[in-house]
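Risk register update: the risk of archive-format incompatibility is retired. Evidence:
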Amino acid sequence: MSDHGAPCWYELSTKDAAAAAAFYGPLFGWGFQDAGMPGMTYTLAELGGTMVAGLMQPDDPMPEFWLIYFAVDDCDAAARRAADLGGTVHRAPEDIPGTGRFAIVTDPQGVVFGILQPLPGQIGGAFDPVRDGHGQWHELHSTDPVAGLAFYAALFGWKKSTTMPMGEMGDYQLFARNGADIGGMMRLMGPPGVPPHWLPYFGVPSVGATKTAIEAAGGTVVHGPSEVPGEAFIVMALDPSGAAFAVVGKA
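Archived output:
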């Protein structure tokens, strides 16, 4: 069965990988190891023997943010398709030895994301909607979520799922892959200057305890805890360097 359109990797761009590991490690139970990639510092986060995320320390200064990768059957074809749909290819397809072929693109509203053509059998388990410490939900904050859904549906085959009205905030539009909801899309809110973005949600056993841990470790909670459908709670936060992320789980 094809993995096309499945969330497959979460990558934090950070100027201080050691500080990021010190924050996220206790929060999610992650352990860390150097990836051994020539010419760059790349740290792998693992949980129970499964690689769940990467910490990339770029040579040139850039914003601190989480990048979500989605699997594709053919990286080169998907990059061309994204461009044909009005997106932009920011990093052309290239190989990662032992992993697959990737590219960095933006959708027509300027939201950056990654695409990855994994080597056969190498999609991994970073996304797991039922395991704590793994990516569990993916939220698009867009200047035009309706156009966003059309773009990603054409690129990945995602389907429109439940629509949840939120009053003046507009609709929260769930989307599904192979019949299972994997995320939602909404109109960009927040203070001026915040760019449209994808927000990853990581699973935790207790959102309340995680909120306390985030604040104790120097992070900032910007929303929640709030109850959401499915008897779950969420918190949106910034890590000590300003990278946005969210958690979901029981109270």
